[in-house]
Amino acid sequence: MKILVLAGDGVGAEVTCAAVEVLQSVAKKFSHSLDLAEGLIGGVAIKKTGSPLPQDTLDKAMAADAVLLGAVGSPEFDDAPPEKRPEKGLLGIRKALGLYANLRPVKMWPSLVDSSPLKNEIVSGTDLVIVRELTGGLYYGQPRGVFTDHAVNTMSYTRAEIERIARKAFELARGRRKKVTSVDKSNVIENSQLWRRVVTEVARDYPEIELEHILVDNCAMQLVLNPRRFDVMVMENMFGDILSDEGAVLAGSIGMLPSASLGESKGLYEPVHGSAPDIAGRNKANPLGTIGSAAAMLDYTFGLKNEARAIENAIGKVLESGRVTADLKPKGPPATTEEVAKAVAAEIAANNEI
Length: 354
Ligand code: IPM
Ligand code: MG
Prior knowledge:
Blueprint: E1 2-8, H1 12-30, E2 35-38, H2 43-49, H3 55-63, E3 66-71, H4 86-96, E4 101-107, H5 120-123, E5 127-133, E6 145-147, E7 150-152, H6 159-174, E8 179-184, H7 190-203, E9 210-215, H8 216-225, E10 232-235, H9 237-250, E11 260-262, E12 267-269, H10 288-300, H11 305-321, H12 337-350
The structure holds 3-isopropylmalic acid and magnesium ion.
């Protein structure tokens, strides 16, 4: 398994290190070999090379089977123009690898119901996936720019772009509860009108899947009123960025959320959370979102379902044992990033059912 690790900024180094430790324990248990490479992205890359996405990183990403990414972003670059910001590295690699489908599962682990600030009866049983379009929409649309006293961004989608992300959502729903919710703002935005029309057309190829349309503002409310009504949710890039952070509240902490960004051939796996500069370097960050992303990598890129399940089961056991970081509000003293990683790796090593 040829994997490129891009730690990036802030807590990125700690959480990717934790996920690599877990991958190593899976590789040992199941007799696989890992071929790990490292590269620069984000603020650290700007400081060392002047670019948030050096060519060397892109070359290594093209040569790898999959990329494991930590986080990008640093307050040092807050005043820099978009082209010179760490985030540009992430947007650049998503585009360069053609990673148009970003899957962000939001699952409430039973042992975490008390970690969410929302009432238990609302969050318990939540099990949904946000399918966020990742290489189009407001993030990339042209024209864009700041012109003296006028600034422009464009929400642009072609029929083909909408169709391929819609297909991803319907395919995913087939293996789940067979419901797709398409999120848009078709009462105001023309782009959303095309979105809704194309998703409805694609749905005809999936008669066994129920399709509902929902406006994004109402969706933001429904997510915290009744999250169990959602199974697969498909949406435009920026709607997905916003609603997936809201989804994090349902899972107890944004530190729990994994993600997979998939294209025709490549896959990039990263936690949904950011670089968290306030706790960086302090061994405090929750590594489970990144460890969950490593499990998604084994599943989607390498087709190793049992290995992915071994990680998921180990995460469940560690959560039940209460050895969790401060964001999950443990009853006792919080565990460190390293302790959580070691606990997950040890559960995998100790599991005799494998
Ligand atoms: C995310 C992040 C990124 C995004 C940033 C860091 C560019 O918020 O992955 O959700 O907006 O896509
Ligand atoms: Mg985001």
